[in-house]
Write a structure and sequence with these properties.
Blueprint (H helix, E strand, L loop, with lengths): L9 H17 L12 E5 L3 E7 L8 E6 L2 E8 L19 E8 L10 E5 L2 E7 L27 H21 L8
Antiparallel strand pairs: 1-2, 2-7, 3-4, 4-5, 6-7
Amino acid sequence: MVYRGSQSGPVFGLRREIDRLFEDTFGRESGRTGWAPPVDVREDSTEIVLEIELPGIKPDDVEVTAENGVLTIRGEKQSTTTEGSEGRYHVIERSYGSFTRSFQLPNGVDERRIEADFVDGLLVVHVPKAAIAQPRRIEIRNSGSQPAIRGAPATGDSVERSRGAAEKQAEARNTTSGPSGRAK
């Protein structure tokens, strides 16, 4: 039998078995899992889409959660091999066991509207973007040349005086300037 490729052949299989032996003996590091499914992440103007390859896994064996800005995908891939089966394996490259993938979601997404579809071993998670508030220009009103006294309530009488003063100033400007707007 001829083995080709850098990650195939008896040496790679032996290395994989040694790695499994160490994981089983010494345990896995916290937060680390046996394998990680490949993920593609793309973004457009309306959403972020994660495509996770999960061949051979049933949708019931996968859990997708979003909490505090973190999207987490958990699941388990069961091994189809049995100890007492006839024949022997020459190469074992497929991964089995539980997995966890977590992704920090950016600001401006709507976690409540996240949806997931599972078709032909591909989990597609749609993370819609929230409507981003656009900057708004705030109009500054000119209430006359007399600044209002802070903390003093505006009475009808003081408002009328302010309005009257502003009108008198506008009249004075109109009478002292010509049609070009310059002073006479």
